[in-house]
Amino acid sequence: MRIASFGFRSLPPSKGSAGADKFALEFLPRLAERGHQVTGYNRIYPGQEKGADEYKGVKIVYFKTIPKSGIDSLIHSAKVTWHIITKNPADIVHIQGNNALFALILKIFRKKIVLSIDGVEWEREKWSWPMRKLVLANAYLAVYSSKYIAIDNVFTKELFEKKFKKKFEFISFGSEIKDAADTNILEKLGLEKGGYFLFVGRFIPDKGLQYLIPAFEKIKTDKKLVLVGGSPNPTEFEINLQKTTDPRIKFPGFVYGDDTVTLMKNAYAYVQPSDIEGLSPVMLSVMGLGTPLICSDIKENIFIVKEDAYTFEKSNVDSLAKMLERSLTNRDEHTKLAAQAKQRILKDYSWESITDQYLNLFQKA
C-alpha cells in the first residue's frame, strides 16, 4: 500500500515537536517495516535546514513554512495537498490534526482519506475566540466530509459522537519505547539519576506549567525541576514562566530521541499538570518505562493511570505541592504504583497493536 502522511512537524522530531510527532515517529516506520511505501511531510521553519530524504524506510518530503502558530500548519498543509494531488499516487492519505479543509480537497481529487483526531481543539486556551470558532468549524467539516476518522481518547470520542450524531473509531497512542541505552544527557545537564522531577512538552497554558512552577517553589527539597521543551516561537506566557528565580528549576530547551528516554527513565518522578489533555503519549511512555507519575485529575489522565499514579486537583497549586511532598516522603509507595502501571500499560497500549488497527482502517478506506 502507498501511504502519505502529514499533520506533524517533523520526522524524526525536531524543535517544537509534540504528540503528533511522537505518533509519526512510532507509527510511520512500523508501516514501512511491514512493506508499505510511506511518505511523510516535514515542515521547515526559517533558520532550519532540510534533513535526510529517508528515515527508517519512510520517504521524507520537505516544505517551508512561517513561524506563526496556526498559520504555519495551514501553509504547510496547502503545499503538501498540492504535492499529493500532482505528484504522489498514494492509495491512502493519513492526516493528523486540524486539516479537514485539505482532507476535503483531497477527497474531491479522489484520494482515500483517514483522519486522526487527538482532542477537542476548540476548547484549548491557546486559541483566540475567532480561532476557536474556526477550529470548531473545521471539526464540523472533518466529521461531515470524512468517513474514516480515528480518535485516540475515549472521552473525546464520546463527545464527538454526542455532538455530531456519528460513530467513530477509537485507536489509542502506544506506550512502549524501543530499547535505548542511557546517553550522557544527565552529565551534560548536570543532573543525577533520581535527582529531579521532569516535564516534557510545549509551554502553553493547557499543559499547566503555571501551576507546576509555583507548586515546586513551595516545597523544600534539593531535587531539581527540569522543564524540557517550549515552542519555536516563544509567547509572552512562555517567557514569563522562565522568569522564576528558583535556582533548582532548569530549562534545558529541546531534547530529542534517546536523550529524552534517558531523562524519563532516570527522573525521580514525572509531572503532568495539564488542564486539557488527550490520551497523553508522554504519560504513556513514562508509565511504560516504569517511572513514577504525578498528574492532574482530569478524566483523560485518570482513564490512563487508573490508581497507579499520584493525582492532584486540576489547576490547584497547593494540591500539586502536596503531591510533590507525598512523592518525596513515600518513595516506596510511589515506585510500587509505577511498577503496577508499567505492567498494565505495556499490555494494553502496544504500538504494534495500534499499527494493526490503523492498517485495518486503511483497508476499509
Overview of this structure, please?
The protein is an alpha/beta fold. The chain folds into two domains: 2-174 and 350-364, 3-Layer(aba) Sandwich (Rossmann fold), CATH 3.40.50; 185-348, Rossmann fold. It is built from 14 helices and 14 strands. The protein has helices at 19-33, 71-87, 100-108, 129-145, 154-164, 185-189, 209-218, 236-241, 257-266, 281-289, 299-305, 317-329, 331-348, 351-364; strands at 2-6, 37-44, 54-55, 58-64, 92-96, 113-117, 149-151, 169-170, 196-201, 224-229, 249-253, 269-272, 293-296, 310-312. Helix 7 (209-218) packs across helix 12. The model has no long low-confidence stretch (mean pLDDT 90).
Brief summary:
The chain is an alpha/beta fold. The chain has helices at residues 19-33, 71-87, 100-108, 129-145, 154-164, 185-189, 209-218, 236-241, 257-266, 281-289, 299-305, 317-329, 331-348, 351-364; strands spanning 2-6, 37-44, 54-55, 58-64, 92-96, 113-117, 149-151, 169-170, 196-201, 224-229, 249-253, 269-272, 293-296, 310-312.
Blueprint (SSEs and pairs):
Layout: E1 2-6, H1 19-33, E2 37-44, E3 54-55, E4 58-64, H2 71-87, E5 92-96, H3 100-108, E6 113-117, H4 129-145, E7 149-151, H5 154-164, E8 169-170, H6 185-189, E9 196-201, H7 209-218, E10 224-229, H8 236-241, E11 249-253, H9 257-266, E12 269-272, H10 281-289, E13 293-296, H11 299-305, E14 310-312, H12 317-329, H13 331-348, H14 351-364
Parallel strand pairs: 1-2, 1-5, 2-4, 5-6, 6-7, 7-8, 9-10, 9-12, 10-11, 12-13, 13-14
Antiparallel strand pairs: 3-4
Helix pairs in contact: 1-14, 2-3, 3-4, 7-12, 10-13
